[in-house]
Amino acid sequence: MTEAGLFFIAYTRDLAIPERMLGRMMGTAGDGLHDHLMDFTQAVSGATFFAPSLTVLKSLAAR
Whose CA is closest to 45, among 2, 1, 16, 7? Predict the structure, then answer.
């Protein structure tokens, strides 16, 4: 089998929420728990993107 991907989208005000969830999934949260799907797969990359709200865009334009 070749590499395949998973696209995960999270909408949140606080980036710590999905980061904590991904940390637990990967077993890096420090609580000893991990997603057992990772016993059969391997993460090869990841990225985080930021989409500002209209309010943030307007405040940046006002500067």
Answer: 7
Query: Side-chain half-sphere of 4: how many Cα atoms within 13 Å?
Result: 2
pLDDT digits (tens, 9 = 90+) for 4-49: 777 778 788 888 888 888 888 888 888 888 888 888 888 888 777 8
**pTM here?**
0.56
Among the listed residues 8, 2, 20, the one whose alpha carbon sits nearest the alpha carbon of residue 47: 8
Length of the chain: 63
Percent composition of the chain: helix, strand, coil (DSSP 3-state, to 5)? 40, 0, 60
**Beta carbons within 8 Å of 24's beta carbon, 6+ residues apart:** 31, 33, 34, 35
